[in-house]
Write a structure and sequence with these properties.
143 residues, alpha+beta, three-stranded antiparallel β-sheet, two-stranded antiparallel sheet, 11 strands
Length: 143
């Protein structure tokens, strides 16, 4: 549509969340989808980012969470890797991963790859692997 930037067009077409659980359904300018398959009556559906968009935001340094998680305060984030090579000599990919996700490591150390962590309800961080439900969910939002 004329006058809309690409992000706004994508949000209107595919549906995203504003990060607070406000629904922005596909085709909706008001941010609500009154009914859809699986909804009963006029219940509103919580729609957010899909996993691909959530992961892209995590790789850009954002924290992401799901409305479907049962504990408050949980989110995922990326833990930067480290590489002992000179950062001015690095470019492109390191082990297939973009070099911007690495910090400078001490000479003589091994390369530590970046990884996704979960900040859990106890305030602890652990390496995280998504479940099938996490990967198929469309209720991801930015923290």
């Amino acid at each position: 549509m004329e006058g809309m930037n690409q992000s706004a067009q994508q949000a209107r077409e595919y549906g995203t969340s504003d990060g607070a659980g406000i629904v922005t359904g596909a085709g909706s300018m008001l941010g609500e989808r009154a009914t859809s398959p699986g909804n009963v009556g006029n219940q509103k559906r919580r729609i957010g980012f899909d996993f691909g968009l959530a992961l892209a935001r995590v790789k850009d340094g954002q924290r992401m969470s799901r409305h479907g998680w049962n504990g408050p305060g949980q989110f995922i984030y990326i833990e930067a890797g480290s590489d002992p090579s000179d950062p001015y000599e690095r470019s492109g990919l390191l082990s297939g991963i973009r070099s911007s996700l690495f910090a400078f490591g001490d000479r003589g150390t091994t390369r530590r790859l970046p990884h996704v962590c979960l900040h859990n309800t106890r305030g602890e961080s652990v390496p995280w692997l998504p479940s099938q439900s996490d990967m198929l969910a469309e209720d991801w939002y930015q923290v």
